[in-house]
Amino acid sequence: MVSIGDKIKILRKLKGITQEELSDILHISYQAISKWENGAAQPDISTIPVIANYFGVTIDELFGYKMNALTNKERFIQFIVNNGMLKIDAEYAGSNDEMKFNINTEKFETNAQISKIGGFFADVIRENAIEFDTLMGLAYHGIAFSSAASIALFEKYGVSVNYCYDRLVPDSRNRIICGHTLTDNEKVVIVDDLIFSGSSLIERVERLKKLADIKIAAVIVIADFMSVKEGEVQTGAQRIEERYGTKVYSIVTRADITRAINNDIIAGRENPISSLLH
Are 256 and 224 in contact (CB under 8 A)? Predict the structure, then answer.
């Protein structure tokens, strides 16, 4: 269970202030704050309302912290960590080297997990006011995520759209699309799991455009690893955006995850990385 000291540390990191700066605000020593965050002591009861007021949370939220102060990106990062989907490279030692981690999209194993992910995808669509006709998932992982997103769009926001997904191997009638039939000029949102150099996604979109001259309204993925193909200067997302005149959205990016790890958003412990190295 996360302690009140852990919660104060998370809130302090989100504010971007040091222990010394917080001590000045609360008119106490920074050593006292250090003890709270290390679990060696707890705030005096008279200080708790001041702390809650400064961070903009209720006292109940401070003790039974619901993470309302976190952004959607930070909530999603905590979600994938708590469900064993995000792993930090054990070779990373907190040096100046690039942080190495991976997201295992095959760890999304339960209906509860898929439902939660669908909600995050739906939020991205609504928060960015994406206008489109059809939601489409790319096989294989994108099928489950797009299906969950389509359900969340309807249940959370009352939005009804066409839905389909593609096949990697045509069926007996040589069809590669299941569900809604794509038509020319249709605005399509593509859902997939991860994006690296963008090459495989471009190949799949070109395959779809041979069936109908669709317009790519947006591409939405779980994470953009911002990789650059050898010999290129653009990331995969940038290549797709330029090629199709669209926008690539991701629930999180490599930079988001790195920032969350460095700011202790994930574990709320003195050394959050150590808790993730299995």
Answer: no
pLDDT tens digits along 148-188: 999 999 998 999 999 999 999 998 888 999 999 999 999 99
What is the C-alpha separation between 133 and 189, in angstroms, rounded?
A: 8
CA angle 226, 194, 230 (to 5 degrees): 45
Angle of CA points 233, 142, 98, to nearest 5° = 40
Query: Which residue has tokens 């302090």?
Result: 12
**Is the Cβ–Cβ distance between 52 and 62 less than 8 Å?**
yes
Cα 69 to Cα 10: distance, rounded to the nearest angstrom: 9
d(CA 81, CA 44): 32
pTM of the model: 0.71
End-to-end alpha carbon distance in the chain: 19
- Cα 97 from Cα 50, distance rounded (Å): 39
Q: Contact 87/278 with Cβ under 8 angstroms?
A: yes
Q: How many CB atoms lie within 10 A of CB 201?
A: 23
Q: Centre a 10 Å sphere on the Cβ of residue 168 and count the other Cβ atoms it contains.
A: 10
